[in-house]
Amino acid sequence: MLRSIAGETIVVNQGSSHTDMTRIISLNVTARLMWEKLEGSEFTLADAAALLVSHYGIAEEQALVDAGHWIERLKGCGAIIGE
């Protein structure tokens, strides 16, 4: 779940009794866009990268790298589950 606190957007993994508050991450504008567009759906790395390409017009190779970092950060704090 996204929360805005003091001008920062953070991801909070609510509903879990084992939430580790040290693993909450702050989202920049791009990460928030991706979260808002992909939240609640099953998506692939390619889907996330395509969103970056369509919104920012960056090269697909760079979008794949950037989307991969975003996915790994969210997995690391338990905000998303995936392979």
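(ticket continues) Second input and output from the same batch:
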Amino acid sequence: MKIGFLFISLAFIFKPGPIFKAGKMPGAQQIFDKSGYYHVIASGDLAAIDSELVVLNHASTREKEAYEGALQMKKAGLLRRPKEKLAIFRSGATKLETAMAADSSNGEYHFLRLIIQEHAPAIVHYHNDEEKDSAFIYRVFKTLPPVVQKAIRDYCPHSKRLHAKDLNG
């Protein structure tokens, strides 16, 4: 009798119906948002980075490989195991460098690489293009989309190479 009462009580508490609100179901198609991407890469939150990587995995943006690469390299810095850090960093570097080789005139790719280079540990030897990338960003700043310009301005206080007063936008 107690079990029956418990079962009936639970039935009233947990009403049948959808558990998730529309658009919030796991696996639901999410739309890639550049400003959200830059917020995530700046946050240093491992869960947010993993979530953004899932969104990118299903996205169809042409910059997908560069975005994934930069996020993977950022993620590597947040992991604990050195072997895992290095493997994920190298995988991300390969993706970003492949995207850059395919479109070396993309200023956003140079910005993504600069973000990583300025914060990468010396042991990964990923600092060779800081000067070249910052010069390229200064040169093409006016032509970049407003979202990317804002991300660059927001990054300037954390950068050794980029200074907001020198941006011509």
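Agent notes: Confidence is low (pLDDT under 50) at residues 1-28. Residues 108 and 148 are 7 Å apart (CA to CA). Closing as not reproducible unless the customer responds.
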